[in-house]
Design goal:
Blueprint (H helix, E strand, L loop, with lengths): L1 E2 L10 E7 L2 E11 L9 E6 L2 E16 L2 E10 H8 L5 E7 H9 L7 E2 L5 E7 L5 H13 L4 E2 L5 E2 L8 E3 L19 E6 L7 E5 L5 E5 L9 E4 L9 H16 E8 L9 E3 L11 E10 L3 E9 L1
Parallel strand pairs: 8-11, 12-18, 14-16
Antiparallel strand pairs: 1-4, 2-3, 2-19, 3-6, 4-5, 5-6, 7-9, 10-11, 13-17, 14-15, 17-20, 18-19, 19-20
Helix pairs in contact: 2-3
Amino acid sequence: MTMGGSTRNITPASFWLAQNQTTPCDVLRAEWAATSCLEQGDFCRLTVDGEEVFYGIVDSQRYTLSAKGGRTQLNARRKLAAYLVDNEAAPKTYLNLPFSQLVARHGTSYGVKGAVGAPDKKMPIYTVPKGRSEWEAISVFCQQLYGRSPYLDGQDRIVADARLSGRAHVLSNNSNPSQSSSAPPTPYSELEVIHRPEAVISSVYLLGEDGAVQRVENEKAGAAVRRRYISPSTQWALFPKWGAREVIASGMEKRLEIRIVLPGYFRCSLGDRVTLPDLPSLSGAMLTIHEIEWAVHNGVMTRLVLKKE
């Protein structure tokens, strides 16, 4: 790891690097033995096996000196995402603006390299109010237009729909899984499946200001009945049913979660597709990577959270 413009290499005793589709900023926490008070630099760069895996803004450093010696703890966020979150968007109302142009106006100057993953639709009218960040301006637009929250991929692009993005991986402890892919599977050290039927919402009732009620049904909810009532905020004024669909989609994503631990540094990205031949009941399911953690503590390991689309 390096700090600022220095070429001096810092080897962390431990680090934790996390990405997920619900938080725009990749987060890095690192700790190392230090002989001086604090390292200079507003930015840091982390490489693993010769590959750069993180470049970001240093949010804080803490130096502790004890009988065991000095130690520095660092917290940092991915540079591009931090800029989008930390900077306020200019208040403005747009008419018939495509998603690609909104991303260009609110992201290009910070380093965003376009939008991918969904058709380039237009919003009839969209207002960015005072106090909204650049990331919120993009995220709310995407939620209203596509019914999904976006995320930043490893190529600095805004991904509007994870189902239309990503590479394919096969994870299996069977050296000869019955898969069409010619690439050998990647073994894992631990796999955990979590089923949460209580998270599924069967229907959402939209309460209008005039007293009218609209109902949005979840066709995949099954027999269980779990209702929610919401009064759409101004962000759903044009498309109130998107608010209901967001609530339903959030519950469906939480219904099934698969956590996998792999030894070493596993190269992957958010939105990548995963096949698990060791779980026959999910062999035909579309599983995507929603969270990634790389950690070093007595060895490198990768933790993934998969969800069913």
